[in-house]
């Protein structure tokens, strides 16, 4: 079940940081814009969805580069906070199979210092463009002191907007998985759309099958839960009882940086184009039919695969996906 395209903005809340990544040409290092939420915002904008970034970005050299990157990709920066703290860094290691591993330098940096006052009006509509969805996840929802503020933002968004969530676990920084899982369950209580990777689940709930987790998480409130399986595609379920799996795409993997974020962007873009975002569409989202769900998931798998075929977090456009 779907309707006319959603008219509205998708707001993305969380970190916009700098990735220190191996340079493919010479084996040295290069700086690249990153941060899971920022990658999702860029991915949405490239897919034609009005995207608003809710981030605290430093007014330093790296922060200005991050602002420039987001702005060039058409992301609305009107609600970005000019932070006094320095920019965060993620140091990326790429294995021979293209899998990415991360180390971080985030102590006292800008992304985590949210205060409630900084988010007043963050979800207000601009003219005729209401905020129809809010997405967050990863370190933004687990790193104090700002994590609780952003969790409050998601809860406050639910009466008017779809809430999208990606745990995007970073074991190096998130502490005890049992503690993190309690926080995940809290967010699932307000979330409508959930994307999680099988790698996340192996850390959060070792020994559990994706199907079992999907069934359990749907009981907590979401309309759709999707578990990405890397090169093997995705499995998903809905609150109405649909269960589906979609195959992966055969590609030559350059690296996996930003692949999950591209999946999330395409997932939200697909729902946006089909009129399934916003509180008014919540009932329709819960009743999404099999053909619509499969089509959205296929687009999301394709977006992640395209990103894996490129160096770094470089999400596709609608033209890249072949979607009109």
Automatic annotation (TrEMBL):
Belongs to the carbohydrate kinase PfkB family. GO terms for molecular function: ATP binding; fructokinase activity. InterPro entries: Carboh/pur_kinase_PfkB_CS (IPR002173), PfkB_Carbo_kinase (IPR050306), PfkB_dom (IPR011611), Ribo/fructo_kinase (IPR002139), Ribokinase-like (IPR029056). Residues 11-316 form the Carbohydrate kinase PfkB domain. Pfam families: PfkB. It comes from Pseudonocardia endophytica. PANTHER family: HEXOKINASE FAMILY MEMBER, PSEUDOURIDINE KINASE-RELATED. SUPFAM superfamilies: Ribokinase-like. Keywords: ATP-binding, Kinase, Nucleotide-binding, Transferase. It comes from the Bacteria. This is Fructokinase. GO terms for biological process: fructose metabolic process.
